Amino acid sequence: MKLYQAIKQSLKAILRNKGRSFLTILGIIIGIGSVIALISLGTGVQSSVTKQVSKLGTSNLTVQPGEGFGPAAGGQSQAGGDKNGPGSGGGRGFNQAASTLTVTDLKALQDTTAHPKIKAVSGNVSGSAIFTAGGQQRRMTVIGTTPSYFDIANLNVSGGTLFTAGDITSSAKVVVLGSQFAQDVFGTTAAVGKSLVIDTDTYRVVGVLGKADESSFVDPNAEAFVPYPAAMATFGVSNFSSLTVQAISENNVDAAKADIQKTLLGTHHISDAKLADFSVASAKDLLSAVTTITGLLTSLLAGIAAISLVVGGIGIMNIMLVSVTERTREIGLRKAVGARTSDILGQFVIEALLLTLMGGLLGIGLGRLIGLVAAKIINITPVITPGAILLAVGVSSVVGLVFGIYPAAKAARLNPIDALRYE
Amino acid sequence: MMQSMNAIELTDIRKLYRTGDEDTAALDGVDLAVKKGEFVAIMGPSGSGKSTLMHIIGLLDRPTSGLYKLDGQDVSTISKRKQAEIRNQKIGFVFQQFNLLPRTSVLENVLLPTIYGKVKDPQRRAKQLIERVGLADRLSNKSNQLSGGQVQRVAIARALVMDPAIILADEPTGNLDTKRSEEIMKLFRDINKAGATVVLITHEPDVAAYADRIIYIRDGVVQEKAK
Prior knowledge:
The structure holds 2 protein chains of 2 kinds.
Chain A: H1 3-16, H2 18-55, E1 60-65, H3 103-110, E2 118-133, E3 136-145, H4 148-152, E4 157-160, H5 165-169, E5 174-177, H6 179-186, E6 195-198, E7 201-209, E8 223-227, H7 228-235, E9 242-247, H8 253-267, E10 278-282, H9 283-326, H10 328-336, H11 341-378, H12 386-413, H13 416-421
Parallel strand pairs in A: 3-8, 5-7
Antiparallel strand pairs in A: 1-9, 1-10, 2-3, 2-9, 4-7, 5-8, 6-7
Helix pairs in contact in A: 1-11, 2-9, 2-11, 2-12, 3-8, 9-11, 9-12, 11-12
Chain B: E1 6-19, E2 22-35, E3 39-43, H1 50-57, E4 65-70, E5 73-74, H2 80-90, E6 91-94, H3 106-115, H4 122-132, H5 148-160, E7 166-170, H6 178-193, E8 197-202, H7 205-208, E9 213-218, E10 221-225
């Protein structure tokens, strides 16, 4: 029997029992549907996180005290409950120990002739203070940093000026505001020349930034920037909560990372890299960590959904077994007119395959639908990749093959006489 | 050649069934020859072995011993796969019941054997045969929309579609009233006149009377009588 004949016969058998065929594949539809929905949402989360992370700048590196990942560049995480933001760490809950990143470290890295892979460095002191915004008291982020930070983070002034290297040396109490910050606290972005009380110190507003891209990690619009010596004085700390380094290009990130590590081990007088009291992470590192986590979660959830595929497959096997019994006489007749064992086997396997494939295709549609509905609720754009579709089609074919073989073999083994006599 | 004159040639065919410790012979040394173009009826009471004989002639079963030549070819010991091939090419079946695929059109039912074997221009041939059995206007009717007599006509058209060496009919009128039975038997006689070899199994003398020759079988042996 030719393949297209076998497919035609199987298709006819499926269409002869439309209602039952649909119920048979319902399990597969739901299984594939949930796998597709979860994968597309997972991929959606991943791509949105990827976008957020790349806003941090793909050629940027962050040096943090302690080990492992902390909040990324800018590190605006606040300490809970404390009146003053702690200058010692990005967030008190995270980095308990006092920071080990000193002004000496900053100066060492700023020497670009000694570090050809480094384009710019900024030292950051992250803290927060309470401001009156719109009649309400709110805790907002204040970052003490170097002028190079604006360049690294791609921030531009829209009114006034940025603070300068001179303001660093003179420890000037000047502040550059994010546009949202200015709007919240002064009710206008035209705040240049006004004064701002941070904690107990009075700062003079010298500039307001233009509207910048925000991400889940950093929102420079809602932050205020001051020269780091002033921030250290106000918050009573002497070290940086993080250093941000810009490599000369994306390709040189790894080389820059090695250089930073070597330099800081030197300034910290540590000979064994394993004992380092700081860590260097690129946006790439962060990205791969985040991708690993979301990928893991996605495959975990999809794995759970895949269990329903097995259940669906068993459903198919069940109905196929019933169908073989019900169609015993048809099988006998086919054998009498010349169908070989292999023809009957082929017909039933193809029937199971076609059923599951139809289930797979309808499941892709259902998964897309679930994804769209879920996206409306949790605000994620689902992404259906060709890989996910291939997976759905592949898995449903395998399910069809695995669970179709047993009933098909049972059908094929029927003795034509017994099959014809079957009442 | 003598051999090629015979469509069917059975020599000392035995079929034993084991029940408990004993062997029971359903067929106990059957010798039978059916000439090409002959119309033969096999008669016998139930339990006589005529069904077993039909299964062996139809290559649906295998004899325990003996020689079976179909259309000059020894088919006593061929493989199951080869059996299926010969059923397709050389034997046209008409059964008493369950002849057609359910909810399937007349044309598709007649075309069923052509899926499993080669025949020239199956569509045209099937349509010609359907016309010949008088169902030209029912070509696309589904099998469940047909009367009992019409179902048997479709089965006959299907039996002929591969142009087989023999038509093997097992109680083809068993479910029909007298008038329809007569119509079907006339149809068998017509196709026999047109050249087909017909072997008919029945227990009704009226039906057997249409054949050129009647073979009686009792207790697994042939008791041939001239008409």
